[in-house]
Amino acid sequence: MERIFALIGRFFWVAIGFIVASYAAGGFLAITSGIWRNFIGIDPSVSGFEGAPITQFEIFLVIGVTGSLLGRAFFLPAMVAIAVSEVFRLRSALASLLGGVAVAFVAGYLGDALPEHGNFRRGWEILLATGVVAGGVYWLIAGHRAGRWQDAGRRKELPAKEDSKAPDAASE
Predict the structure, then answer these.
(1) What is the pLDDT of residues 63-109, one digit of tens each?
(2) Fewer Cβ neighbours under 10 Å: the N or C end of the chain?
(3) Residue 91, exposed/middle/buried by CB under 10 A (0-12, 13-18, 19+)?
(4) Of residues 62, 143, 163, 152, the one with CA closest to residue 103
């Protein structure tokens, strides 16, 4: 029963880790891909914006939309990578970073994570770097405890007691 509760708790942390990693990767992708250039130079009188061209709302909106789209594109490959890390207890940061790169590669190759126009090589560089960011954030939240739910409910072996009646070599 203890193992079931540990597994349910693990599902919770995996979900939180995936969501936060998706939005962190979305922020990274929005900054590095140049999405911000679309907001620079907007005339407030024409666009209806009052004040600065980039407000905090637009920043969070772009990060939110980008993170949501990345979460959708990365979902299936990420769940496979997370399942592998949980089953094989891969807790190292390097495993999560490489898993993020693998997830980004699979999502870019099989899915629609890369734009069809623009610099092809630059798109892959940014996408793979985004996978590294997502893998690192996931490791910070959930990856460093991968597979520990498997130990829940098991009895721990006590160390063997030393014989206290044995003569001490120093006292002789």
Answers:
(1) 899 999 999 999 999 999 999 999 999 999 999 999 999 999 999 98
(2) C
(3) middle
(4) 143
Backbone angles phi, psi at 68, to 5 degrees: -65, -40
Q: Is the pTM of this model over 0.85?
A: no
Other CB atoms within 10 Å distance of the CB of residue 122: 12
In degrees and rounded to multiples of 5, residue 50 shows phi and psi of -105, 125
C-alpha–C-alpha distance, residues 94 and 20, integer Å: 19
Degrees, nearest 5: CA angle 117-121-125? 110
Dig out the tokens for 101 from the structure.
């790169």
Q: Which token pair is 162? A: 């030393």
Rounded distance between C-alpha atoms, residue 138 and residue 123, angstroms = 22
